[in-house]
Design brief:
CATH superfamily of the largest domain: Globins
Shape: globular
CATH architecture of the largest domain: Orthogonal Bundle
Largest sheet: 5 strands, mixed
Strand order of the largest sheet: 2-1-7-5-6
Number of helices: 10
Number of domains: 2
């Protein structure tokens, strides 16, 4: 990589990244037919759903505590800690309220993505919740909704809840991918990037390149994408014709260090990594 010291250059190369949570959410909602007209129709169910929501929250956690497998996943085999239960009910209540309001915002999509990471064991309690139990929880909610809403709108609620579940599953899979591979590296962020990654992230790699480490970190924490990357338009081949698309590239003056050395002066995104290496995001500014 022919780079002269002092040049204002990028860390060149294309990163292969999944859609951002809000893009994934919007796509699934469009497929399910959740447009403005559908949302207005679903809002007609809000009062009846809100009247029963608190009871559903209590019933959900009663069921989780009674069933041996979910009680074990939550660490409730011997007893149900009241403080923890109150916190979980609070978050569940906030989620069900946003669901009844048919929230389709980008912020909600990011919230769902984070929830998937928590279920994968990357939450404060480091508890792993298998995805099939998350799917069953969504089925529980849909069944509860179906007892209240008119039959012609049950399909809309099913599509909306499924879209949520898929965004959450993407967060879950991004978190689980961090543990796949033999080489173990540590990723950290400094300066303005630190709020997006306040704690160092341990990432396992299969191919063992800087690109693989960065792609896993960006898929896990989309707010890093917001800070570090920008879209570059490209022509994408689709069958017999070309479509306009985009790729992600680093913004100018962003630096990625490998063991304290600027990756631009190593092998760029192809820089090989080994167990024990440290990757550092260093944004411009302070």
């Amino acid at each position: 990589m022919a780079v002269k010291w002092g040049e204002d250059v990028r860390l060149e190369g294309i990163l292969s990244l999944p859609p951002l949570p809000e893009e994934r959410f919007a796509r699934y909602l469009a497929f399910a037919g959740i447009d403005d007209a559908a949302r207005r129709a679903m809002h007609l169910d809000a009062e009846a759903l809100l009247e029963r929501a608190a009871g559903w929250v209590r019933a959900a956690y009663d069921a989780l505590a009674r069933f041996p497998e979910t009680a074990k996943a939550l660490g409730w085999e011997s007893r149900v800690p009241e403080d923890e239960l109150r916190i979980r009910r609070t978050f569940f209540s906030a989620w069900i309220a946003r669901t009844i309001g048919v929230d389709s915002s980008a912020e909600f999509a990011r919230y769902l993505h984070r929830a998937g990471r928590v279920h994968a064991g990357y939450g404060p309690e480091r508890r792993y919740v298998p995805p099939d139990w998350v799917a069953m929880a969504y089925a529980f909610v849909l069944n509860a909704f179906a007892q209240v809403v008119p039959g012609e709108r049950v399909g809309l609620w099913a599509g909306y809840l499924t879209a949520q579940e898929e965004v959450m599953r993407a967060g879950f899979e991004a978190a689980r991918a961090l543990g796949q591979g033999r080489r173990v590296v540590r990723i950290e962020a400094l300066g303005l990037a630190r709020p997006a990654l306040p704690e160092p992230l341990e990432v396992r790699l299969a191919a063992g390149t800087l690109a693989e480490a960065l792609e896993k970190a960006f898929a896990f924490e989309p707010s890093l994408v917001d800070q570090a990357l920008e879209r570059r338009p490209v022509a994408v081949e689709e069958g017999l014709w070309m479509e306009e698309g985009f790729v992600f590239v680093f913004k100018p003056r962003w630096t990625v260090l490998v063991n304290g050395r600027d990756a631009r002066y190593l092998e760029g995104l192809a820089t090989p990594l080994k167990t024990g290496d440290r990757v550092t995001f260093l944004p411009p500014g302070r």
